[in-house]
Amino acid sequence: MAESFGNSFTIVEVASDEVPSTKQLWLAFAKPSQALTLVLAASPEGYTAEVVPAILTEKQQKMFEELKLGPGDVYRIDSE
To answer: Model's pTM, two decimal places?
Structure first.
């Protein structure tokens, strides 16, 4: 049986191993344990990822819902 992605957003920070490190923030519509794998699959090769412990405000939650991400979708939320 397939595992559910859940119904919440997880924020993930990815960083390059270059010096200075390049960092990006990604949004995943998945559980934290799944979000890391999904974001790493979508980010450039050689990056590492970690979940950013964040509690989303109601405004942020609504803004993210407007992206219309489906379960398992990821979205890069910064411009670096």
So the answer is: 0.81
